[in-house]
Amino acid sequence: MAIDEWTELEYNLALTLTEMAPVTNGWHARAAATRSRLAVEERRYGPHPRERFDLLRPASPRAALIFIHGGFWRARDKQEFTFIAERLVEDGCTVALLNYPLCPDVTLDAIVDSIRRAFLTLWQDVWTDDERAMLVACGHSAGGYLSADLLTQDWAAHGLPESPLKAAVPVSGIFELEPLTRTTFNDALRLDPATARALSLPDKKVASPAALSLVVGGDETAEFQRQTRELHARWSQLSPELVIEPNRHHFDVLDGFDDRASGLYRTLSRHLGL
Length: 274
Fold this sequence. Notes:
The chain has helices at residues 5-11, 20-37, 86-90, 108-126, 129-133, 142-149, 186-189, 193-199, 222-234, 263-272; strands spanning 41-44, 52-56, 63-68, 93-98, 135-140, 167-171, 211-217, 241-245. α9 links the parallel β7 and β8 (241-245). By secondary structure, it is α/β, with parallel strands linked by helices. It has one domain: Alpha/Beta hydrolase fold, catalytic domain (Rossmann fold).
């Protein structure tokens, strides 16, 4: 499918957002600093080399957060995002940061399967009862899609409660996939329009109800804001919350993890019972 210039510029922020490189480059140093201060345990959840998660656990955990990184399902690594865990661990929350196989080595369907395996492994083999009782899934950008998709899974078929999550908190998520078929990202995603529609979350049925808080930066592009508002409208049966972080773009919105006064952190704290 031909590239649509407007759509490309709405999603490919490397072309338009001059602040992108300084922010994302800074993640590495911030993550390394967090790893120097907190114990990090890496575990595997599947046979693929990228089916791993990092676990950061406080001395007396009262809740747990699953974090799924972004990168349009074809880039980035959990170790870039360790910084998101520091305040949460200080406040008594265990954090699991997931890696997963990437496109084009695998399909998006296969990534969804990997995240399901990670969730099952964490539930069955890692979480304590206190962590299971206050469990939240959060993801950024493409990871926002994967965190919200957990609410479409039939967990009871796997022996879990119907609704194992207390809440899902996608940050700057990409939920409708058809626009991406008109961008250069599709070179790796390899989505045709029919597959993109089938995988898009607004049309999927919620099978595992939980609280849903959708976070987006006030300075994000029109398409990223539309993506969040569209899922907010289409999954109205969950009475979702819309959290707009003023003066934040697609990348520095994650600074909210380090600011207990931010809308993002206050939302997470409320769901986690911190």
